[in-house]
Write a structure and sequence with these properties.
Length: 172
């Protein structure tokens, strides 16, 4: 079954009122900040979204995004593939409802002047947050042995004798 394209933005109140769900793709071109962080551009992200109201009447949406990314290993600099999956749950805020009014299990997302949420930006933000802080191959898969790594030349004074070596003589 061919996946449909997730709309760029939606009115969360109307969409939640109709309990609409989306199962589709966010195109890689809609994720420019994520693409800049990758070794090679990724494919489209597979996204599922569900809009609803909770028992308190708060409009919210939850979702999951999946994409295969290629990052540069910070140890050897070679490309490494990594599946990236993130889950999220948001409630829209405006001048009437602020982030402080929301329960802790919702992240706040601002609506624009048209009353819509930019879904592509939300998905992109979540994928960026899901990236590892330091991307590295597993030790046995990396082109560089971590035990053989050196980090520059030692200065000549570092090769001098230990000044406390004399104390070792006195200890005997």
């Amino acid at each position: 079954m061919k996946k449909v394209r997730i709309p760029k933005s939606v009115d969360p109140v109307r969409t939640a009122g109709k309990e609409i769900s989306y199962d589709g793709l966010v195109p890689s071109s809609g994720l420019p900040r994520l693409q800049e962080m990758l070794f090679t551009p990724s494919d489209d992200a597979e996204v599922t979204l569900a809009f609803d109201r909770d028992e308190q009447g708060i409009v919210f949406f939850r979702g999951e995004a999946k994409v295969e990314v290629t990052l540069a290993c910070q140890r050897c600099g070679e490309p490494m593939n990594m599946p990236l999956t993130v889950k999220f749950q948001y409630a829209p805020v405006n001048h009437k409802v602020t982030a402080d009014d929301l329960p802790g299990y919702y992240d706040a997302v601002e609506i624009n002047e048209l009353g819509e949420v930019d879904l592509h930006a939300v998905v992109e933000d979540e994928l960026i947050l899901g990236l590892p802080l330091v991307a590295m191959h597993a030790v046995n898969e990396c082109a560089i042995d971590r035990d053989a790594m050196t980090f520059g030349e030692l200065p000549p004074e570092a090769e001098k004798k230990n000044p406390f070596a004399v104390l070792q003589q006195l200890k005997k």
